[in-house]
Design goal:
The complex is a heterotrimer. By secondary structure, chain A is mainly alpha-helical. Chain A is built from 16 helices and no strands. Chain A is 68% helix and 0% strand. The radius of gyration of chain A is 24 Å and the shape is globular. Chain B is elongated, with a radius of gyration of 17 Å. The chains are: A mainly alpha, B mainly alpha, C mainly alpha. At the A-C interface, helix 2, helix 4, helix 5, helix 6 and helix 7 of A face helix 2 and helix 3 of C.
Chain lengths: 407, 104, 243
C-alpha cells in the first residue's frame, strides 16, 4: 500500500521505493527502541521502589518522576569520557557498539502486526537468535579491553553464561516452530487469532516450553537472578566497570533492547503475537489498517508486560552464584529442553487431531480458571483486615491496648 | 546479484583463502594458526554458496555443503583448542616455535 | 532494490578484505580475533546477499557465537601476561608478503580467465513458469526474483526438502502449511489428497537426488564424539614443569 503511494504518486522507481521503505522502517525501529529504553529505565526504578516498599523517582517531572530518565540521560551525556590508561584503545571503544548492534539487528525480523515487519524472513526466529548471539563478543571485548581484572572476570563469566543459555533457549524456540511448521514469526503469530489457539495452551509441551524459554531468556539478557557478572557486591560492576557516561548507556540500551526482543519472540511464539484473542483473521482483514494499528498496540503491551515480569523477578529473587547459574543451565534446563522437543515431536506426529484439540481447550480452561482463582483469592484476602488476637511483630499479643497496659 | 557476476565472489573466496594461509604460516601463537584455519574454511564456504546461487543445475546442494562445512569447522576448532590447552599445560607457553622436539 | 546489491556486495567485500589482511598483520591475538569477527560477519552478509539465509544465520550462530567465543576463551586461558605479543621477524614478513601476493595473483588469474559453462537445466527444474502462490505480491521476497530462474533459495523448506531427497513436492495451501514453497506441479490423479495435518510435502515423483539425511546424522554423531573428546583432552591435569 505504501509502496503504491511511493511509486504511483511520487513517481519513484520500484527499486528506490523499496530501499526507501527499508530505510524508514529501520529508523522507526531505532526510535522505538530508544523510546522503549527510556520507558524501561523509568519503569525499572518505579518497580524496584515499589517492591522495596518505597516510592521510586518522584521529583523530576511531576509526582511520578516521568522525566527521570531524561535527567539521567543528560547526566550521562555530560560525563567525562574516561578511558583507563591500561585499556586496549580500539577494543575498549568497540565493545559497546558491537553489543548494541547485536541486540538491535534482531528487530529486523520481529513482526509488530500482520505483515508489519521490517524484513519478512522465512527463517525469522532463527535469524533473531543468531544475531542476538553476536552480542556476546561485545561483552568479551569490553571485559578484556578494560584492562582490569574485575572486568575480565565479569566479562568471561558473562560470556560463558550467555553462550550456555543459548542452547536451551533455541531448543525451547524449536518447540512452537514444530507445532506451526514454519520459522516465520509472522506466520506463527497469525495462527493464533483466537484465545484458545495460543500456543501456550496448545499442548503440555509448549506450555512448559514457554516458562523454560522465559527463564533462559532472562539468563540470556543477564538479568537477575542470573546477573552475577554485573553484581555490585561481587565484581564491582563486571564487564562495564570501567565504562562511564554514554558508553555505559550503550550497554544498557543493548540490554533493554535484548529484553524487548526476547519478550517479542515469546509473545509471537506463545502468546498470540498481535492478536487480542477474540478477533479472528477474517475480521482483521476486513478492518484493514485499523486492525494493524490495534495489533501493534496489543503486541507492544504484551511485550512490555513480559519485560515488567522480568523486572519483577529481578527485584524479588536473590542472585544465583556462577556455578549455580551454569548448573541450572546444563543440568536442568538443557535436559528439560530436549525432553520438550522430543515430546512435542511425538505429540505432533502420533496423537490424533481430536485429542490435540481437546487437550488444547482443557489446558486453556485450566489455566484461565487457575489464574482467575489466584486473582480472586488475592482480592478476597486483601479485604480481610487482621482482627484482634492475631499476633504480629508490632503487637506481640495481637492487641495494642493489651501491650500498652503491660508496660 | 546477477549484475555482480560469479567471478568477484570467487575472488573473495580466494582472498580469504590466501589470507588464511598466510595467517597459518606467520603466526607464532597456536591460536592464531587456528584462526587462520577458520579463514580458509570460510573462503571455501563462500565458493560453495556462490556456485549454489549462480549454477542453475545446483538447487541447494552448495548451501547444504556450506552447512556441513560450518558445523565440522566448529567441531575441529574445539578439538584443536583442546590440543592447544594440553600443550599449554605441558609447556606453559603457546609459542609454536618451542614445539620443536618430538617426545615419546 | 536491484541497484543496491552490487553496492552492498562491494561494501561487504571491502570490509572482508580489510579485516582479513588486518588479521594477518596484527600482532595482538585478541585484536586478531576481533578482525576475525568482522570477517565472519561480513561473510554472513555475503551469504544473505546470495539468498542463503539459513546458511548466513547458521554462520552467525555457530561461527561468531560459538567458534569465535571458544577461540577467545582459549586465548584467555593460555594468556601469558597482559597484552604480550609474539613477534615475527621482519625477514619473515617480507617472505610472507611475497608468497601471499604471488599466490593470490595465481588464483585471481586462474579465476578471471576461467569460463564457467553452466549447463542449461531442463525446464522442469526451473521455476520460471511456476504460478506464484496465491496472495503473493509481485516481487514478494519469499518467492524469489521473477524471470531470472532463481528459486527463492532462502526458504528453509527447500533445505528440508533437499535433506530428505524430495525433488518435486505438491504442497497444499493448508492454513497450517508453510506458504513459501514454489514449483507446484499438480498432483497425479490417483494420489489421495494430503490431510491438513499430515505431511504437507507429498512426493509426486520418486526420489531422484541424493538425500542428505545420512550425512546429517553422521555429522551429529561426529559432534557428539568431538564433544566428549575435547572435554577429555582439555581436562585439568597437574602442570608438569614449565619453562
Amino acid at each position: 500500500m505504501v509502496t503504491d503511494f511511493l511509486t504511483k504518486t511520487l513517481g519513484l522507481s520500484r527499486d528506490v521505493a523499496d530501499a526507501l521503505l527499508v530505510f524508514v522502517a529501520v529508523n522507526i525501529l531505532l526510535c522505538f527502541v530508544a523510546v522503549s529504553a527510556i520507558f524501561f529505565i523509568w519503569l525499572e526504578r518505579k518497580v524496584a521502589g515499589r517492591i522495596q516498599d518505597r516510592l521510586g523517582p518522584t521529583r523530576v517531572g511531576g509526582k511520578f518522576g516521568w522525566l527521570q530518565t531524561i535527567a539521567d540521560g543528560i547526566k550521562l551525556l555530560v560525563k567525562e569520557d574516561l578511558i583507563p590508561g591500561e585499556a586496549d584503545q580500539m577494543l575498549f571503544r568497540l565493545g559497546p557498539y558491537i553489543a548494541f548492534c547485536g541486540s538491535f539487528l534482531a528487530f529486523i525480523a520481529l513482526p509488530f502486526a500482520d505483515g508489519w515487519v521490517a524484513k519478512p524472513l522465512s527463517i525469522g526466529v532463527f535469524f533473531m537468535l543468531a544475531v542476538m548471539s553476536t552480542e556476546v563478543f561485545g561483552i568479551i571485548l569490553a571485559g578484556y579491553g578494560s584492562g582490569s581484572k574485575w572486568a575480565l572476570f565479569g566479562g568471561m563469566r558473562e560470556a560463558a553464561q550467555m553462550v550456555s543459555y543459548e542452547v536451551p533457549m533455541a531448543l525451547c524456540v524449536i518447540v512452537p516452530v514444530i507445532v506451526a511448521g514454519s520459522m516465520d514469526l509472522n506466520f506463527i503469530a497469525k495462527q493464533q487469532d483466537w484465545f484458545w489457539k495460543w500456543y501456550l495452551f496448545h499442548d503440555p509441551f509448549t506450555f512448559c516450553a514457554f516458562w523454560t524459554y522465559f527463564t533462559c531468556a532472562t539468563a540470556q539478557c543477564k538479568r537477575a537472578p542470573f546477573d552475577l557478572a554485573e553484581a555490585e557486591s561481587e565484581l564491582v560492576a563486571g564487564f562495564h566497570t570501567e565504562y562511564s557516561g554514554l558508553r555505559w548507556s550503550f550497554f544498557f540500551m543493548a540490554e533493554y533492547a535484548a529484553m524487548f526482543a526476547v519478550s517479542g519472540i515469546a509473545v509471537n511464539l506463545f502468546l498470540g503475537g498481535w492478536n487480542i484473542g477474540f478477533l479472528p483473521n477474517s475480521v482483521q482483514v476486513q478492518l484493514g489498517i485499523f486492525a494493524n494499528l490495534l495489533g501493534v498496540a496489543i503486541f507492544i503491551l504484551k511485550a512490555w508486560g513480559l519485560v515488567f515480569v522480568m523486572m519483577w523477578v529481578r527485584w524479588t529473587l536473590p542472585r544465583l552464584r556462577i556455578d549455580q547459574v551454569m548448573m541450572t543451565c546444563l543440568k536442568y534446563l538443557l535436559p528439560i529442553g530436549c525432553a520438550l522437543l522430543l515430546g512435542v515431536a511425538v505429540w505432533q506426529a502420533f496423537v490424533p487431531v481430536l485429542a490435540v484439540q481437546i487437550v488444547g481447550y482443557l489446558l486453556c480452561g485450566v489455566f484461565v480458571g487457575g489464574l482467575g482463582w489466584v486473582v480472586f483469592t488475592l482480592f478476597a484476602a486483601s479485604t480481610k483486615l487482621p482482627g484482634p488476637g492475631v499476633p504480629n511483630l508490632w503487637t506481640p499479643s495481637g492487641s495494642a491496648k493489651q501491650d500498652l497496659a503491660q508496660t | 546479484m546477477d549484475a555482480v557476476g560469479l567471478t568477484p565472489f570467487l575472488l573473495l573466496g580466494a582472498l580469504l583463502f590466501v589470507c588464511g594461509t598466510l595467517c597459518m604460516a606467520t603466526k607464532r601463537n597456536a591460536i592464531g594458526i587456528l584462526m587462520g584455519v577458520e579463514l580458509v574454511l570460510n573462503g571455501a564456504t563462500v565458493n560453495f554458496v556462490a556456485f549454489a546461487y549462480f549454477n542453475p543445475v545446483f538447487e541447494i546442494e552448495g548451501q547444504i555443503f556450506a552447512l556441513f562445512v560450518i558445523v565440522l569447522a566448529a567441531a575441529e576448532a574445539a578439538v584443536a583448542l583442546a590440543i592447544v590447552l594440553n600443550f599449554y599445560n605441558n609447556h606453559s607457553t603457546v609459542d609454536v616455535d618451542t614445539a620443536e622436539e618430538l617426545k615419546g | 532494490m536491484d541497484f543496491l546489491y552490487p553496492i552492498l556486495f562491494w561494501l561487504l567485500a571491502a570490509l572482508i578484505g580489510v579485516s582479513a589482511v588486518a588479521m594477518v598483520v596484527t600482532q595482538n591475538i585478541v585484536r586478531a580475533a576481533t578482525w576475525l569477527l568482522f570477517t565472519l560477519a561480513g561473510v554472513a552478509g555475503i551469504f544473505f546477499l546470495l539468498s542463503a539465509d539459513f546458511v548466513g544465520a547458521t554462520q552467525l550462530l555457530v561461527y561468531v557465537g560459538g567458534t569465535l567465543v571458544l577461540v577467545v576463551f582459549g586465548v584467555m586461558l593460555t594468556a601469558q601476561g597482559p597484552f604480550i605479543n609474539l613477534k615475527i621477524a621482519a625477514g619473515e614478513w617480507a617472505i610472507a608478503a611475497v608468497v601471499g601476493i604471488g599466490f593470490f595473483s595465481l588464483l585471481a588469474f586462474t579465476l578471471i580467465n576461467a569460463k564457467f559453462d553452466f549447463p542449461v537445466p531442463e525446464q522442469s527444474q526451473v521455476a520460471t513458469t511456476a504460478p506464484l502462490a496465491a496472495g503473493a505480491a509481485d516481487g514478494d521476497p519469499l518467492i524469489g526474483d521473477k524471470g531470472t530462474g532463481h528459486r527463492s533459495l532462502a526458504a528453509s523448506v527447500v533445505l528440508g526438502e533437499a535433506l530428505l531427497g524430495f525433488e518435486k513436492t505438491a504442497p497444499e495451501a493448508a492454513v497450517t502449511g508453510p506458504r513459501d514453497v514454489m514449483a507446484v506441479p499438480a498432483p497425479l490423479p490417483g494420489m489421495p489428497p494430503p490431510s491438513s495435518r499430515q505431511a504437507r510435502l507429498v512426493p509426486v515423483l520418486k526420489r531422484q537426488k541424493m538425500a542428505y539425511l545420512l550425512p546429517f546424522e553422521i555429522v551429529s554423531v561426529h559432534l557428539l564424539v568431538v564433544l566428549i573428546g575435547a572435554a577429555y583432552l582439555a581436562r585439568s591435569k597437574r602442570r608438569r614443569g614449565g619453562a
